[in-house]
Design a protein that fits this description.
By secondary structure, the protein is an alpha+beta fold. The protein contains 8 helices and 6 strands. A 4-stranded mixed beta sheet has the order 1-4-3-2. A two-stranded antiparallel ribbon has the order 5-6.
Length: 327
């Protein structure tokens, strides 16, 4: 008796998926608009008062704008259904976007560090610092609310690109607040070197944010398994149907953008019909889709007759290497 593979997938475009795609695009557009306005304000004020910390924030926001545009492009690309050239969908466009965004962060931080180091020793003007304080305060408030919105939509729709963009803006809240404090000290004390010192602190915070985004994005590109908490839910869901099969093993998981891919082997009684096996797979797929958003499930059916049981562990087709710890 040959092995039978039954693949079941969630509907490609059921209403909840369409709604998630609309929400992702709306959030990405909001980020683009807010970043564009803040860049103009920061750059105008920074150049007029000669503040390297405000200009560095304008550079940081420019990186954020590029990241927001990339996120908008990525969520649109990832929303496209699977096709002949991309049979597993386009979800990894979001991971690519997050990786590119992290590299842009490092470039922006390098520019800020370069400008700040050259600013030390110069005698800057402090008369117009109040305008820098005002625009930094405005930036921190706006980005606080936009980043919260991006995180909310990103988590609820499993968008790596929006989460990366939200992390950008969350860092911008911290850096804008830091520049706000630094410029306030310059205004109160009249010490100009506090301005470039604040810019260096901003750069270090930006580098930390970029590193975190890079680790998250690359994990999806190299097919890292889902977090342990999600895998535990998957195992528990499969085991809820244990009275209808003999054993499951070779559980593997990975994430591609907002999609979760799950595959495993099921050992079935010899007398079970193909129709009954197919119905069980449908039930498992529906149950997994309820506990893991965006689940795409592939189940490999193996009849009991081709498997050998040793201490409750089944070794079946010799073409597959068994990993006991994965069952």
């Amino acid at each position: 008796m040959s092995n039978l593979t039954i693949e079941t997938t969630s509907p490609a475009l059921h209403p909840s998926v369409e709604e998630n795609n609309v929400r992702r695009k709306r959030a990405a557009r909001a980020s683009v608009i807010s970043n564009t306005c803040l860049i103009a304000a920061k750059l105008g004020v920074g150049l007029s008062i000669g503040s390297v910390s405000v200009i560095s924030e304008a550079i940081h926001s420019s990186v954020d704008l590029i990241a927001a545009l990339m996120a908008l492009i990525a969520v649109r690309a990832a929303a496209r259904p699977a096709d002949r050239s991309h049979p597993y969908g386009h979800g990894k466009f979001e991971n690519l976007s997050g990786t590119a965004e992290s590299l842009l962060i490092f470039v922006g931080a390098g520019v800020i560090i370069y400008e700040a180091l050259h600013k030390f020793g110069e005698h800057g003007e402090t008369s117009g610092v109040i305008w820098g304080i005002a625009v930094m305060g405005l930036s921190a408030v706006v980005n606080f609310f936009v980043s919260r919105y991006l995180f909310k939509v990103g988590r609820e729709t499993d968008s790596v690109a929006l989460l990366a963009d939200g992390a950008h803006l969350q860092t911008d809240v911290l850096t804008s607040g830091g520049v706000f404090v630094g410029l306030t000290l310059v205004w109160l004390t009249g010490i100009p070197w506090l301005d470039p010192l604040t810019a260096l602190v901003v750069a270090l915070l930006i580098i930390k944010s970029g590193w975190d985004i890079l680790l998250q994005s690359v994990g999806g590109l190299v097919d890292a398994s889902l977090p342990s908490g999600e895998e535990d839910l998957i195992k528990q869901t499969i085991e809820n149907y244990s009275d209808r099969y003999l054993n499951y093993h070779e559980l593997r998981t990975r994430q591609s953008g907002p999609e979760r891919h799950i595959d495993f082997h099921l050992v079935m009684p010899n007398e079970l019909t193909v129709e009954a096996a197919h119905q069980l797979c449908n039930n498992l797929e529906e149950a997994l889709d309820r506990v893991v958003n965006g689940a795409i499930v592939q189940i490999h059916i193996e009849p009991q007759s081709v498997c050998t049981e040793i201490d409750g562990v089944y070794r079946c087709s010799p073409a597959h290497t068994h990993h006991p710890e994965m069952a």
